[in-house]
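2.7 Reproducibility. Because tokenized structures are sensitive to small changes in the input, we list the exact sequence used for 2-oxoglutarate dehydrogenase E1 component, including any N-terminal residues retained from the expression construct. No trimming or masking was applied before prediction.
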Amino acid sequence: MPEGTMKAWLESSHLSGANATYIEELYESYLDNSQSVSAEWRTLFQQLPKIEGADLEFRHSEIRNEFKELAKQSHKTVVVSGSSDAKQVKVLQLINAFRFRGHQNANLDPLGLWKRDKVRDLQLSHHELSENDFDTEFNVGSFATSQDAMKLGDLYNALKTTYCGSIGAEYMHITDTDEKRWIQQRLESVQSQAKFSVEQKEEILKGLIAADGICKYLGAKFPGAKRFSLEGGDALVPMLKELISRAGTQGTKEVVIGMAHRGRLNVLVNVMGKNPSKLFDEFGGKHDEILSSGDVKYHQGYSSDFVTPGGNVHLALAFNPSHLEIVNPVVIGSVRARQDRRGDKVGDTVLPVTIHGDAAIAGQGVVQETFNMSQARAFKVGGTIRIVINNQVGFTTSNPQDTRSGEYCTEIAKMVSAPILHVNGDDPEAVILATQIALDYRNEFKRDVVIDLVCYRRHGHNEADEPSATQPLMYKKIKKHPTPRQLYAQQLDTEGSVSLDKSNELTAYYRKLLDEGQCTVEQWRPMTEHSVDWTPYLGHDWDDDYDKEISVEKLKELAGKLSTYPESHPVQGRVKKIYDDRVKMASGEKLLDWGMAENLAYASIVDLGKRVRITGQDSGRGTFFHRHAVLHNQDDASKYLPLQNIREGQGPFDIHDSVLSEVSVVAFEYGYTTAEPAGLTIWEAQFGDFANCAQVVFDQFISSGEQKWGRLCGLTMLLPHGYEGQGPEHSSARLERFLQLCADHNMQVCVPSTPAQVFNMLRRQVVRPMRRPLVVMSPKSLLRHPLAVSSLEELSTGVFHNVIGEVDDIDPKKVTRVVFCSGKVYYELLDQRRKSEQENVVIIRIEQLYPFPEVELQAELAKYQHVKQFVWCQEEPQNQGAWYCSQHHFRAAIPEGTYLTYAGRKASAAPAVGYMSVHVKEQQALVNDALSVED
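Resulting structure tokens (single pass, no recycling of outputs):
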């Protein structure tokens, strides 16, 4: 087709938006058979961009976008100075190539060690263009500039400046067109180069001086001490200060930060405003407060206020252990609690910031889990700012080829279409621009965003390491490489913004602050009432008096609200039967089962105005079809929650089926409870053994957070436990692991056996002022066991019985054997004893295994002081369950001169057998052994 004819045809109405569907159908036909369309269309399709390495459908989607853009631009006349229409299409293709792949040729490595091949797509020749076309004007399509057309030479330089400078932007993987257009506008309109005032540049310089200054000061004052220096990644300090200041200006009231070791001391002093004299005391072995164990300096958290143009922002740096990345869901959970308390449903007021290592973000699965949670209803917080301190080494001696399979450490972020801004850590102005774009994107679209701060590590993994042993070339370069402070100070002096003399004055002033032990953060302010008040929950003991009782009348009222739903909301048949029974339970016609008592506990809590939050993989219904807190309309799938309709002004009731994860969800809920002590927060395992996957959270946060960091937590964990013949993986919640973690009265481990017990146990967790974690070995078969029922009167006492004595009328004088047990095995023992008509054996349930109820048990045993035979009976193998961890408690409680024996399965590597016939045989044998019944 002649060029003039093609141009005229392009400028006709064929490309208008109204014809989009027709054009797509034409293109589908062309893909199948190029001869099936007219010559004009065939010529145009042949000139459209080819995306290298993409499959056919991907190319089609790109071309559909190209058509949409051409339609938008159809009102503009192509500005041509002898150019061909074919080259015009190539120019648009060139723009797209830089958007897709410009980051691969960006100047990101401060050390200049990266060996990166030239990207063919970014070369003029690849698009059949050359420098001979530089003076020709072309329409620039959607390229964000004030001009409709540019000379190719100017456009090419603008593209390289925008996409191949100190910022390498990855965002074309984002599926939302508005988000991509937004990022294009922000980058292309300034060609990735921000303009800062002299005052702003001086503020950036101060941040670099501070980052450099504290590292050198600590190195000189405490040589050889571990400090996990930030040196090389100094831009993190001005980055965080800009992030907080800009967030405050935009209405943020709180910022919660989570990070590992690298740079933590720097952030504590130079961002959070921790007094350096306190840090120096810690290096010297002095501590203001003595916790039962304490923790090392680079695990410590801190809270302060930071003044911004929009008002004070409350800062919280989370405490965290060495376990890489596990603090991230803790931080996000804390943010969700703070947002819920503020009534913020979109994430405007509280901002989460997580700081990662380059090897850690690529290597730790919990990162994927938190990305996956980021838009889920139970866990969304309006997006997280994720900063990677990419020192290009990873940890001790690693190399990128050993720590990941992708080109970048940030590939994981693409799973949720998060934009990734790679930025050269030696260009602090580019770092600040990337920070501004990241925050504004997060606040605009409420989604995660990643800043990859490409830097280096001046020392080894810790200051005692010798990194040149394993990275000789890198560390030769680092030794000669100027610090970020030196580079920026020289840049400002050269451009006439800030003289070297002024830089030296600022450096001397910072050193003076350190020498005098003064706060180094000008924006620091004393804390005001931004965070929750923990005062009501401090200094309490387990037995402190509190308002326990609840009247039967009140229970009936709550039960009535709990057991009704609108007639216009039809429910599934089995669920209707459950609710019909609950109506009878509410009136007292029928004893309460487990599901009714549990829901009634929640109703009594929200009636007090307190929040109830429950997450788990089947929480709404209940894994074992017992809870049914969420009623699904069988006609339109709408939902009705009776617990959200107890009364006007009640406390919130939130129940969510969680993502299929344990470690990230448990960590999230731990974080939630550390920021929300007033209500009841529950994580429920689908099966108790699934808690294995969250073991790090139990070990390093739940069991020891108070001892290490003074952090209280009232998280409740429901772990279905009980030997029902379902095999090794769905029997045991690993009771022994939790008991092994018990010390210093750090948590409660309970095994309730009746509906009244679960009601009062859950309610006690809120109405009692003490806040400690609660681990519950919750039942499966007891949910519908005919003997596991309770009356409203039993609930109304408000008392959780740590020990339950014999329930049958057995004369204590005739007793020759006392059997201790916990959980569902009690009902099997009871059934067998009744069948055997034994009157010489009593069964005592220990419902709380920790803190061990020694006083209550001794009181119960007072009537059996003549008995010589005491037995602990459990379903678990001998090396598991409560036997090894608790037998010293049992022995201490029984009378002197008596002995304690074990009745249960023999020691085993597996938690349970996999064959039902063997299970039944073993179960009957341990029951008979406990009761001394011959087979």
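The chain is about 40% helix and 15% strand.
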